[in-house]
């Protein structure tokens, strides 16, 4: 039987959630509830739901992370960036490209960590940021990571 939304919210919002234990309690039947919670913009429960979804071994759950990466909500995007390293490569790349579009230095740092050595479209987007990001800190961080000349 699926977990109730109220119970899942309670589990996700404890002071220090143990995500592996939460995932162990969930099944595919709980994914719609997890997705509803993940869509609550600006909440701790939403961020925890996104990260929890990243740990589940179901593409339907992992799509929650990609959806959060595309969200205008900075909390959802940060949660997606934190969980994206748990995604299989095609989803990781989709999430990375969405996250890199916002020029958020903290999120970009998480993206760079998750993708390892960037290639293809992610590398191209990072190079664009290294050349023309609006903030000097973001430009410098990306240029350093990619080994771009700082002249």
Report on the architecture of this protein.
By secondary structure, the protein is mainly alpha-helical. The chain has one domain. Helix content is 68%, strand content 0%. It contains ten helices and no strands. It has helices at residues 5-12, 19-25, 31-38, 44-55, 59-69, 74-83, 89-100, 105-115, 120-132, 136-146. The radius of gyration is 16 Å and the shape is elongated. The protein starts with a helix and ends in a 5-residue tail after the last helix. This is HEAT repeat domain-containing protein.
> Kindly state the mean pLDDT as a whole number?
93
What portion of residues is helical?
Answer: 55-70%
Domains counted in the coordinates: how many?
A: 1
Q: End-to-end distance, in Å? A: 60 Å
Helix and strand element order: HHHHHHHHHH
Topology at a glance:
Elements: H1 5-12, H2 19-25, H3 31-38, H4 44-55, H5 59-69, H6 74-83, H7 89-100, H8 105-115, H9 120-132, H10 136-146
Helix pairs in contact: 2-4, 3-4, 3-5, 4-5, 4-6, 5-6, 5-7, 6-8, 7-8, 7-9, 8-10, 9-10
Structure characteristics:
mainly alpha, single chain, 151 residues, 10 helices
Summarize the structure.
This protein has one domain. The chain has ten helices and no strands. It has helices at residues 5-12, 19-25, 31-38, 44-55, 59-69, 74-83, 89-100, 105-115, 120-132, 136-146.
């Amino acid at each position: 039987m699926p977990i109730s939304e109220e119970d899942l919210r309670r589990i996700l919002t404890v002071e220090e959630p143990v995500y592996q234990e939460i995932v162990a309690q969930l099944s595919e039947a709980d994914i719609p509830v997890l997705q509803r919670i993940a869509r609550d913009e600006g909440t701790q429960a939403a961020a925890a739901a996104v990260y929890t979804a990243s740990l589940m071994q179901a593409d339907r759950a992992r799509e929650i992370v990609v959806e959060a990466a595309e969200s205008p909500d900075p909390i959802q995007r940060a949660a997606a960036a934190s969980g994206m390293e748990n995604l299989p490569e095609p989803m990781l790349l989709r999430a990375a490209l969405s996250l890199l579009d916002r020029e958020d230095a903290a999120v970009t740092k998480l993206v760079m960590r998750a993708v390892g050595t960037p290639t293809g479209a992610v590398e191209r987007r990072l190079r664009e940021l290294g050349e023309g990001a609006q903030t000097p800190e973001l430009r410098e961080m990306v240029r350093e990571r990619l080994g771009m000349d700082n002249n």
